[in-house]
Structure formats: structure tokens, C-alpha cells
Design brief:
Length: 229
């Protein structure tokens, strides 16, 4: 799993890292609300661990901001020392998917994170992804635009799904390469070739262009002509 940990208590953050990283999980860390929010909107994570009491802006505000942006459906587990039911309800109302009280077992934390990711993946694969006139069903692998079925190969389908699920932001070249080829991406020009082919299928036959290149950064699927943000 690729996990974002937003926690200002260094001892807790280090304990989480000491347990999860040797198990093969990839972790990013932020110690402030603003830092966590920035990482969450500029990177792709399987799950986010978010403390409520943070410097700058609190975890509830971070969670609420991510949900209100639209498209940010990454599972969020809230960490807090507050154990009252009203506090839990506030977390869920802000958009959290789970809630863990401090002090907690690191083994339980990992189990809850795995459960959140597995549930999210089941929901993702069973639901159609939509972006304006463009639709993609990960379950049937059927893609269509304006009622026209699109003929995509496996790599094009994977690129399309990643771009559609992250249409709220620019997806970097390195992220796309990692999503398709893991830790062994081929020559960098290969991604450009696949993007070109994908654009020919989903955009060329139609009037409005959805797949935009953000020079020096990556790509974004958007109905807006200005998709640099």
C-alpha cells in the first residue's frame, strides 16, 4: 500500500514507519494540516491516516477540504485521542471512512488500512467512472464516449482509468509510469506514444478535447480547456 501519514507526533509517526515500511508499504509523512493537504492533492495514495489535532489546520478541515474538492475518494482513517461518540460523528461527517483511538495497536492500524483499501478497490472495480461524455467500466473494461464504444488496449485502459479517477488534478508522468509498469518503467518516450494513441481514440473523432498535456508536468483529463490547475 502507498500510505500518507499526517501526524504531528514524531514518536507515533516513527512507530508507524518502523512497523509498516519493513512490510513493504510505501509511506509519505506530513506534520501539519497544510502539508498533508498538499501531499494528498498532488499525489496518489491507497489510503490516508489523518490525525485530528494538527498545527495550522486540523484534520477535520483537511478531510472536509479533500472531500469537497470532488474526485478525492481515497479512504481516510482518522487518528485521535478523543473517544466520545460526538467526536467520531464529526469525523464521519467530515468524510472519514474509519476512526481509531489513541493509543492504538499498530497491528490493528495495518488491519484497518488493508480493510479500507480492499473495500475501496471492490467499490472501484464495480462502478462506472464518468467524466462528462466519457464513461469507463473497470468491471467490463468497456469505454465509450457519446454512445460510441472506444477500442482500447490494456495499457490505454489503465491510463484512462487513472486519469479519470484523478480528473481533479494533473497526473505526473512518473505517476502514470508507475501505475502501468510499476518500478520498472520502459523508455520514457513509450508513455508519450501510449498517450498519443489514447488521445487518438478518445478525442480525435470528437469536437471537444478532454485529454490535455500540461507541459513539464504530466497530463489531465478535463472538460475545461484550461486544465493546468
Amino acid at each position: 500500500m502507498r500510505i500518507l501519514i499526517v501526524e504531528d507526533n514524531r514518536d507515533i509517526a516513527e512507530n508507524i514507519a518502523d512497523y509498516l515500511e519493513p512490510l513493504g508499504h510505501t509511506l509519505d509523512f506530513a506534520a501539519t494540516g497544510h502539508g498533508g493537504l498538499q501531499l494528498a492533492i498532488t499525489n496518489t495514495y491507497d489510503v490516508i491516516v489523518l490525525d485530528i489535532m494538527l498545527p495550522g489546520i486540523d484534520g477535520l478541515s483537511v478531510c472536509r477540504s479533500l472531500r469537497e474538492r470532488g474526485g478525492t475518494v481515497t479512504p481516510i482513517l482518522m487518528l485521535t485521542a478523543r473517544d466520545q461518540i460526538d467526536d467520531k460523528l464529526l469525523g464521519f461527517a467530515a468524510g472519514a471512512d474509519d476512526y481509531l483511538i489513541k493509543p492504538f495497536s499498530i497491528r490493528e492500524l495495518e488491519a484497518r488500512l488493508k480493510a479500507l483499501v480492499n473495500r475501496h478497490e471492490r467499490q472501484s472495480t464495480s462502478g462506472t467512472v464518468n467524466l462528462g461524455p466519457l464513461q469507463f467500466d473497470p468491471g467490463t473494461l468497456r469505454a465509450e464516449r457519446e454512445g460510441v464504444v472506444l477500442d482500447l488496449n490494456p495499457i490505454q485502459r489503465r491510463l484512462l482509468e487513472v486519469l479519470m479517477r484523478n480528473s481533479h488534478r494533473v497526473v505526473t508522468r512518473s505517476e502514470l509510469e508507475h501505475e502501468v509498469w510499476g518500478d520498472n518503467p520502459p523508455d520514457k518516450d513509450i508513455l508519450r506514444t501510449h498517450i498519443y494513441a489514447l488521445r487518438n481514440v478518445i478525442d480525435k473523432p470528437f469536437t471537444d478535447k478532454l485529454l490535455h498535456t500540461v507541459h513539464g508536468t504530466g497530463y489531465r483529463l478535463s472538460e475545461s480547456a484550461d486544465s493546468r490547475k
